[in-house]
Structures are given as structure tokens and as C-alpha cells.
């Protein structure tokens, strides 16, 4: 589950991680009051207005309606309302949102942390995530903060340092110091970074996250280390242990079809193709998408109805797939192991009749327990549904309806 920057910073702060202080607002008329509050708390006289969406690249992104960037600097209290107004309610387009962009419902009014002092502020990159190939967490750090880490990895991979954490003993002191040394820090900034890394790792484990990305981590001019931005992804499988975090979910940031699928107990991911697919089992779903491509089509979605497919789940799957105007055909591919094929076939027929007005071809491939009985139900239904037993037959029928 993704959360907003301001929510992520609250989690970090609760674990002792120093963050850039800010106040979130959903109305431009409240922006100046938020800035005044921030001024009283921190003494800041400049303010950063930051769009809150689930996507990176906000600073370089543009609000379609106003041309404003997604992250802007207000150099006085009087500038804050106008800066917030130019972002709130607009559609922010970044390299991660795609051309459709995302509507900005909230902005974070944050303190300016790039103040003058004894030394120049310096930005770093720091992230923690699970390295599945080594079955342990890895901390990634770079001196190239503020940049897309993909660009750094492609152009200057030597500037990324990695430290793998043994799950049996956790993060060790020498590892945190090794990262701080690699970033070229010394003196108080070095000590601050070591402390920052430990607090960050504690927050990562404590919140059951699957990824922390802090870009940039800032060394201020007086050698404080703090998180200026925060991208946090929580492991969905652990949310039952974090009811408070679960409440941070922002459904407006998610694809409506995926939200609807989740409510029906379906695993759904929208893609850009023209053939909808409904399958039981993630592995079979991947194979089905391959078959669609080999047949000359493109998968329009990943949809796993699970092992207990019935009329209700099939109907829900149909409704979700049919909401995509790009879908020209639907391939239902079921392997009857836990679930019987005749039961699925009855579910398809019932769902078809209940929804009605389905004007695109549907191919149903049933294999496994009671596959022949299921195929007979489909064929005798009188509906515009083609049945197949072998995967190559299903592929041929997909190719036929697309030609």
C-alpha cells in the first residue's frame, strides 16, 4: 500500500527520524494559516508547497491547468496561498503518472531547510527494500541525492553503495558507519547520519514496509541530517497488524477498477491491451497473458479469481473487465483443481445472463476436474461463448476473434 509523503513523514517521525516539518491542507484558503503555524514552530520564513500524489517526479512535473510545478517555493507568507491555489485541484503530470496525470487533492506546506550557514547543504539518496535474490533487506545510498536513482544506476553505478542486512542479527553499527563513510561525511554530520540510518531501519521494520525511499536526505548547513521527501510502501500482507496505517489508504489515488476488485476478493491489475483475461492462479494468469500475446493480442489486465471461483466472483470479474473500453475479447482460463470446472461454467452462464448486453467475444477454456461437463454446459447454454479444452485451442480462438 502506497501512502502520501506527509503520512510517511509522520511514521518516520514516530520512530525518531528527523524530517522536514510541514502542515497538510486541502484548501488554498487554509494555506497561509498553515504557513503561519509553521513559522511559529520552526522560524522558517520561506515555505515549500508540495503536491501530495502517489507518484515521483513532482518537482519536475507540471499542473496541466496552471503550468505550475508540483513542488514550488514561496518566499513569503503572502505568496503561499497563490502557490497552493496553482496546484490544488489541478492535474499533475510527471514521468511516473503518464499523460493522464493525477488530481492533486492536498498540498504539504513545508519549512525551508536549505538555509544559509557554515557550510553548503548537501543532498543524498537513501533507501531500504527487500532484496529477494538474497532473502534479506538492503540499504542503498548515494551521494547523488535529488536525482532519479534509475539515472544514477544507468550512468554512474559506482556512486551507489549497498549494504545487506542479515535478518538474524539486524543492522549493525559498522554497517551504518560504512554507509556514512561512503557518503563522504565526517564530524557531527557523520554521527547524525549513523543515527538517521538506525532510526530509519527501525521505522522500516516496525511499520512492516516493503520499501523506504528518502530522496533527498539532506545535510543542512549546520550538519543536521533529515528527510526532505519520503516514499513509503507498506506490505499489504502485514496491514492487519497496523490498523492505524491501514486507515491512511487513499482510495482516490488508486485505479477504481482495482479498488472494486479488491472488495470482491479479486487480484486485478489493469494493463493497456485489448484482450481481457480471467484466470484462477497467478502462474496460470502469466501463462495466459503470454498466450494472448502469441495470438497477436495484448493482455488488457491481470485478473486472478482465486481457487474458489463461483458465480459471484465470475460476475464481478466480468463487470470489472467490461469497464475497460479497450477490451475486444475476453479469455477465461480455468484449471479445475480446488474448484470444479462445471461449477465455473455455471458461474459464467449465470453471470452472462445477469449482466446482459455483452457484445464482445468470450472464450472459455476449462481443464481439470469435470472439464468435459463444464464445456458441455457452455456449449448448451445458447450464449455467444466459445469453449476450448486445450490452451492452443483457446489461443487459436483468440486469434480468430481479433482478426
TrEMBL record:
Residues 2-217 form the ATP-grasp fold succinyl-CoA synthetase-type domain. The keyword Metal-binding applies. Residues 278-398 form the ATP-citrate synthase/succinyl-CoA ligase C-terminal domain. Its cofactor is Mg(2+). Keywords: ATP-binding, Ligase, Magnesium, Metal-binding, Nucleotide-binding, Tricarboxylic acid cycle. The keyword Signal does not apply. GO terms for biological process: succinyl-CoA metabolic process; tricarboxylic acid cycle. Heterotetramer of two alpha and two beta subunits. Succinyl-CoA synthetase functions in the citric acid cycle (TCA), coupling the hydrolysis of succinyl-CoA to the synthesis of either ATP or GTP and thus represents the only step of substrate-level phosphorylation in the TCA. The beta subunit provides nucleotide specificity of the enzyme and binds the substrate succinate, while the binding sites for coenzyme A and phosphate are found in the alpha subunit. This is Succinate--CoA ligase [ADP-forming] subunit beta. It comes from Fulvivirga sediminis.
Amino acid at each position: 500500500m502506497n501512502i502520501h509523503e506527509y503520512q510517511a513523514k509522520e511514521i518516520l517521525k514516530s520512530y525518531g527520524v528527523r524530517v522536514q516539518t510541514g502542515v497538510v491542507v486541502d484548501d488554498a484558503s487554509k494555506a497561509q494559516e498553515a504557513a503561519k503555524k509553521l513559522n511559529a514552530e520552526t522560524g522558517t520564513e520561506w515555505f515549500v508547497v508540495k503536491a501530495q500524489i502517489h507518484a515521483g517526479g513532482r518537482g519536475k512535473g507540471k499542473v496541466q491547468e496552471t503550468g505550475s510545478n508540483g513542488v514550488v517555493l514561496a518566499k513569503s507568507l503572502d505568496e503561499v496561498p497563490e502557490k497552493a491555489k496553482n496546484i490544488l485541484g489541478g492535474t499533475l503530470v510527471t514521468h511516473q503518472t503518464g499523460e493522464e496525470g493525477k488530481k492533486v487533492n492536498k498540498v504539504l506546506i513545508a519549512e525551508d531547510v536549505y538555509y544559509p550557514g557554515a557550510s553548503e547543504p548537501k543532498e543524498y539518496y537513501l533507501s531500504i527494500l527487500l532484496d529477494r535474490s538474497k532473502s534479506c533487506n538492503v540499504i542503498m545510498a548515494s551521494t547523488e541525492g535529488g536525482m532519479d536513482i534509475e539515472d544514477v544506476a544507468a550512468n554512474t553505478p559506482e556512486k551507489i553503495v549497498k549494504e545487506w542486512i542479515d535478518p538474524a542479527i539486524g543492522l549493525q553499527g559498522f554497517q551504518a558507519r560504512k554507509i556514512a563513510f561512503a557518503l563522504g561525511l565526517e564530524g557531527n554530520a557523520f554521527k547524525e547520519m549513523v543515527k538517521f540510518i538506525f532510526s530509519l531501519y527501525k521505522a522500516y521494520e516496525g511499520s512492516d514496509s516493503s520499501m523506504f525511499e528518502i530522496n533527498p536526505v539532506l545535510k543542512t548547513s549546520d550538519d543536521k541530517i533529515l528527510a526532505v521527501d519520503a516514499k513509503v510502501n507498506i506490505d499489504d500482507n502485514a496491514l492487519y497488524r497496523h490498523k492505524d496505517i491501514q486507515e491512511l489508504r487513499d482510495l482516490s489515488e488508486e485505479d477504481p477498477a482495482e479498488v472494486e476488485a479488491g472488495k470482491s476478493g479479486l487480484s486485478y491489475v489493469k494493463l493497456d491491451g485489448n484482450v481481457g483475461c480471467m484466470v484462477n492462479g497467478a502462474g496460470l494468469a502469466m501463462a495466459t497473458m503470454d498466450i494472448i500475446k502469441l495470438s497477436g493480442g495484448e493482455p488488457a489486465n491481470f485478473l486472478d479469481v482465486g481457487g474458489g471461483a463461483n458465480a459471484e466472483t465470475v460476475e464481478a470479474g466480468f463487470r470489472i473487465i467490461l469497464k475497460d473500453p479497450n477490451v475486444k475479447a475476453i479469455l477465461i482460463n480455468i484449471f479445475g483443481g480446488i474448484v470444479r470446472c462445471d461449477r465455473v461454467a455455471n458461474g459464467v452462464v449465470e453471470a452472462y445472463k445477469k449482466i446482459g448486453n455483452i457484445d464482445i467475444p468470450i472464450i472459455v477454456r476449462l481443464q481439470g476436474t469435470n472439464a468435459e461437463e463444464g464445456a458441455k454446459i457452455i456449449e448448451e447454454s445458447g450464449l455467444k461463448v466459445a469453449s476450448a479444452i486445450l490452451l492452443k485451442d483457446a489461443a487459436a480462438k483468440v486469434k480468430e476473434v481479433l482478426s
